[in-house]
Amino acid sequence: DIIQTKFLKIRKNINNKQKEYERQYFKKFLGVIIFYFISLVAVSNLLWYFIPPEDFFNYIQNPGEHLLLLGILFCASLLFTLDITYLQEKFCVYVCPYARIQSVMFDHDTMQVIYDEKRGGLIYDGHTKLHKKPPEGECIGCEACVSICPTHIDIRKGMQLECINCLECADACSKVQSKFNRPSLINWTSAKAIETRSKVHYLRFRTIAY
């Protein structure tokens, strides 16, 4: 985000991830080059777990004798760059198994990103959007939580597989609600804690068993 908005200025607003990139092809190409060098450093750092850094730098000075190492370095860096520049949030939605694995283990006490419907008001009935701004509740319908979401979901709809629990929506809501001297409507808590207004139960049979 910092490289795209502050350095290259491809995006004008870091808080709106739904807006398409501006058509600045040279800057986009420059961004790919920057991300590739960042990926080279990241992959090199990973390889240093298996090859001491001093040996690593000696090896790359003799590329003809260490083609496998260089192949892994450059190909893995290319994959990292592809992930950062093209796949982006698509990796989280379609490739990463995190959400699907976690959803199997969910219960009412599971910590997750939750919109407080009791305070904010009812916006969705299932997948049907009833209101942009609920007639009753503290949600003002600014949709800052929607604009900033990297996986393009509306957390007010409820738990969704696409949610990666980054809590950017909670931060966005917190900024808006702070203007009214109210806490965020989106929090890192459990469904049971929201319903009963109680504390989250961390130690329970399921967490100990897992």
UniProtKB/TrEMBL annotation:
<dbReference type="GO" id="GO:0046872">
    <property type="term" value="F:metal ion binding"/>
</dbReference>
<keyword id="KW-0249">Electron transport</keyword>
<dbReference type="Pfam" id="PF13746">
    <property type="entry name" value="Fer4_18"/>
</dbReference>
<protein>
    <submittedName>
        <fullName>Putative ferredoxin domain-containing integral membrane protein</fullName>
    </submittedName>
</protein>
<keyword id="KW-0812">Transmembrane</keyword>
<dbReference type="InterPro" id="IPR017896">
    <property type="entry name" value="4Fe4S_Fe-S-bd"/>
</dbReference>
<keyword id="KW-1133">Transmembrane helix</keyword>
<keyword id="KW-0408">Iron</keyword>
<dbReference type="GO" id="GO:0005886">
    <property type="term" value="C:plasma membrane"/>
</dbReference>
<dbReference type="GO" id="GO:0051539">
    <property type="term" value="F:4 iron, 4 sulfur cluster binding"/>
</dbReference>
<feature type="domain" description="4Fe-4S ferredoxin-type">
    <location>
        <begin position="128"/>
        <end position="158"/>
    </location>
</feature>
<dbReference type="InterPro" id="IPR051684">
    <property type="entry name" value="Electron_Trans/Redox"/>
</dbReference>
<keyword id="KW-0813">Transport</keyword>
<keyword id="KW-0472">Membrane</keyword>
<dbReference type="InterPro" id="IPR017900">
    <property type="entry name" value="4Fe4S_Fe_S_CS"/>
</dbReference>
<keyword id="KW-0479">Metal-binding</keyword>
<feature type="transmembrane region" description="Helical">
    <location>
        <begin position="66"/>
        <end position="87"/>
    </location>
</feature>
<keyword id="KW-0411">Iron-sulfur</keyword>
<keyword id="KW-0004">4Fe-4S</keyword>
<feature type="transmembrane region" description="Helical">
    <location>
        <begin position="29"/>
        <end position="51"/>
    </location>
</feature>
